[in-house]
Design goal:
The radius of gyration is 23 Å and the shape is globular. The chain has a 6-stranded mixed β-sheet with strand order 26-25-30-29-28-27. Strands 2-1-24-23 form a 4-stranded antiparallel β-sheet, with no helix packed on it. The protein has a 4-stranded antiparallel β-sheet with strand order 3-4-5-6, with no helix packed on it. It is built from 4 helices and 30 strands. Helix content is 10%, strand content 52%. The N terminus is likely disordered. The protein is mostly beta strands and 394 residues long. 39% of the residues are buried.
């Protein structure tokens, strides 16, 4: 075997849920002050700090964030205490019912709800015991929000779309009010309405729903294909587009206005948004940047951590010798190829000295040491949907 060829392949790097996906994402928390009707944001911190899928934050109260996080091959609900920075796992449901998503506090209770397992029923979890029980079954729920403690507004998976369904738990009734909706559901402050994303047309639209009557009404077009929003107590709605945070005052603004551009490489492709009851904190989800994932996979190589190494790549990853010769493809081929080197080379170490990011590509100059041999390589990484999809060796 030619050690130089193997070193070339070993010098890898890269970056770039619905349920079942594993895009690398993190949950960030920021201080927020509303001035002249517009939020001013500062001091973003990563509150998840967990490799893999971290998503769907919501505020249990002003000082507590709940979110979904990956551990041991499934997703559980985690809690972050804003005062002391402590994290705590709230669920640990074993298979086959394992994995919870989308935690939300139930109105008027200390309990929270979450979507659980492959059936995707809504469960209730007592605090602090964690004791659970199903509250809504017979529907494959994608996302949910509470209108009252006995009325749930949900998106339900039907064929290749989600439909908007209102469920009255006390009366045991279910009403479908809209076909083809998005994942973002939120009570509208100061009203008897819930907002949802209508995806019947090519451009998603923000609509309102009166759960008690089933009446719906358009609020505004979304700025592009994004479908994540949150409401401030003053009636302002926030959304994001890539690294831009935007706002709209319905009935007053004719278009979405820029709130903030995030220049930090850590915050890239913003999705989920949540605000605390006191409107002093904003939580959001962002994909891990290319630069961070470059270092993650290099760290995995240097630590001989095969699972962390593989986690950075798409299932259909391709390794190519420039210009178009496929060396191998797929994660299992990766494992077969790299495991012997992880096991047998005692001084294996790789560093990335120079990087250029452009679009969905990262160009890296990398240096590797193995068995006393030093190798310098230039590699191009292509990224799709939060995972490395192609590695090209120059």
């Amino acid at each position: 075997m030619n050690i130089k060829n193997h070193l070339t392949i070993l010098s890898l790097s890269g970056c770039y849920l619905l349920m079942g996906q594993s895009t690398s994402q993190e949950v960030y928390l920021m201080d927020m002050v509303i001035r002249d009707g517009t939020p001013k944001l500062s001091d973003p911190i990563n509150i998840s700090e967990n490799e893999g899928y971290d998503n769907q934050p919501s505020f249990y109260d002003d000082q507590t964030v709940l979110f979904t996080a990956t551990r041991n091959g499934q997703t559980d609900i985690r809690q972050y205490n804003i005062v002391d920075g402590n994290r705590k796992w709230l669920t640990d449901t074993p298979d086959p019912d394992g994995s919870e998503y989308s935690p939300l506090r139930i109105p008027g209770e200390t309990a929270f709800s979450a979507i659980r397992g492959s059936q995707q029923f809504v469960y209730k979890y007592e605090m602090p015991s964690g004791q659970s029980g199903v509250v809504l079954k017979d529907l494959k729920v994608g996302y949910h929000t509470w209108f009252t403690d006995d009325i749930l507004v949900t998106t339900v998976l039907v064929d290749n779309r989600m439909d908007l369904v209102v469920s009255n738990l006390k009366a045991d009734t279910k009403q479908t009010v809209q076909n083809n909706v998005g994942r973002s559901l939120h009570p509208i402050p100061g009203t008897d309405q819930v907002s949802f994303i209508n995806k019947a047309d090519s451009i998603p639209e923000l609509w309102s729903l009166k759960p008690l009557t089933g009446e719906t009404e358009k609020i505004a077009a979304m700025p592009g294909i994004g479908e994540d929003i949150c409401w401030l107590p003053n009636g302002i709605v926030l959304t994001a587009r890539d690294n831009l945070l935007l706002q709209l005052n319905p009935g007053k603004d004719s278009s979405w206005q820029l709130v903030k551009t995030f220049m930090d490489n850590d915050i890239h492709k913003i999705t989920r948004l949540a605000v605390n009851p006191g409107a002093t904190k904003l939580a959001m989800v962002a994909e891990v940047s290319a630069e961070i994932l470059v270092q993650r996979q290099l760290g995995a190589i240097n630590n001989r951590d095969m699972e962390s190494f593989l986690a950075q790549y798409a299932d259909n990853i391709q390794f190519i010798e420039y210009p178009d010769q496929v060396v191998f493809e797929g994660k299992e081929a990766m494992r077969s190829h790299y495991q012997p080197f992880f096991d047998s080379i005692p001084d294996l170490h790789c560093d990335s000295k120079n990087q250029i990011s452009t679009g969905n590509k990262v160009i890296a100059e990398e240096f590797c040491l193995a068995n006393g041999n030093k190798v310098r390589e230039v590699t191009i990484y292509e990224v799709e949907n939060g995972k490395i999809s192609k590695v090209i060796f120059l």
